[in-house]
Amino acid sequence: MVVRKALRMTASAVTSLGLVAGFGGIASAATTNGTVNTTGYNSTNNITNNSTWHGRLMNMNDLMANVVNPQSSFSGNTYNRFNTKGGSANSGSASNNSTLDANVVYSNPASMSGSGSGSSSFSGMVNDTGAQSNNNVTNNSTWNGRVMNRNNLNLSVSNPQQSFSGNASSSYNTNGGSATSGSTNNTSNTSASVNYVNSGSMSTAGTSGSSSNTGTVSDTGAMSNNNVTTNTNTSLKVVNSNSAQISTNNQQQSSSGNSNVSYNTNGGSATSGSASNTSDTNISVDYSN
Questions:
Q1: How far apart are alpha carbons 140 and 289 in whole angstroms?
Q2: How far is CA 120 from CA 28, 31, 124, 243, in A?
Q3: Where does residue 38 fall: left (phi above 0), alpha (psi -120 to 50 degrees), or beta otherwise?
């Protein structure tokens, strides 16, 4: 590119990346009542309750972002030659500006309970049975709950930049003017913020995690066999797995052009422009489990 006075080229890019992910909860309820009364001699009376609750809540968030932002800017060359009175030769400036904001938020509020209000109840009653009867009230409760949050982030940012100002030449003039090469500048700002929020909670009843089981045997006959049995098994597990891989590649190159004043009877000044590179990178990762 050839110009006679000044040329300025600017390449700029603004990139914004955002992600928000969330999840809710689940619940179930169970109420059981059993009653046996007014049975005869030598009878066998059983009330058995088997309750099994399995809950599993899994949040899996995978994000892979690859941002590539190559930039190049060039100013043209200027020549002032073979003149009786040569004017000035000025090469324009070249500039690159790049801004990247990446904000990633994982929000997984996970909750599970054994019922809608977090309670479960069983009531068994045996009464007014005959002599030598066998009376049994049995309650078996099993509660298994698991909350798993897995968050994977792979963020790659590549921002190569080049800027070059052109050459300025004043030569072969009787009275040569000045030759000035323009300045070059590269600026890159990168900010990446990652926030993991994984709140997993489980309970079998209410906020205290209690259950109500009642078994009653009354008014039974002589030499009867009476049993009340309650078995409760509770298993709770919360697993949070977080991983973040962030890589940045910010290559910058800036070069000011050559200025040449030569072969003149009266030569002017020769000035080469400045070259500068500026890069700011901020990365923040926050885990809250």
A1: 33
A2: 9, 6, 14, 38
A3: left
Q: Can you read off the two tokens belonging to residue 192? A: 């990446």
Could you tell me if 72 and 162 are in contact, meaning their C-beta atoms sit under 8 angstroms apart?
yes
Q: Which residue, 34, 57, 28, 73, is CA-closest to 205?
A: 28
- Residue ranges of E strands in 129-271: 134-158, 161-164, 168-171, 179-180, 184-203, 212-218, 225-249, 252-255, 259-262, 270-271
CB 184 within 8 Å of CB 92: no
Report the alpha-carbon distance of residue 16 to residue 189 in Å, rounded: 12
Residue 163 makes CB contacts below 8 A (sequence gap 6+) with 72, 73, 74, 94, 95, 96, 184, 185, 186, 253, 254, 255
Query: Dihedral of CA 37/42/43/49: which sign?
Result: positive
pTM of the entire predicted model: 0.61
- Residues 203-234 pLDDT 10s: 544 333 456 777 787 888 888 888 888 887 77
The number of beta carbons lying within 10 Å of the beta carbon of residue 78 is 27
- Rg of the chain over Cα atoms, rounded to whole angstroms, equals 40
* Cα–Cα distance measured from residue 266 to residue 103, given in angstroms and rounded to the nearest whole number: 60
Which portions of the chain are predicted below pLDDT 50? 1-28, 114-118, 204-209
Which one, of 163, 177, 179, 178, lies nearest residue 75 by Cα? 163
Residues 37, 125: Cα–Cα separation, whole Å: 8
In which residue are the tokens 């200025």 written?
259
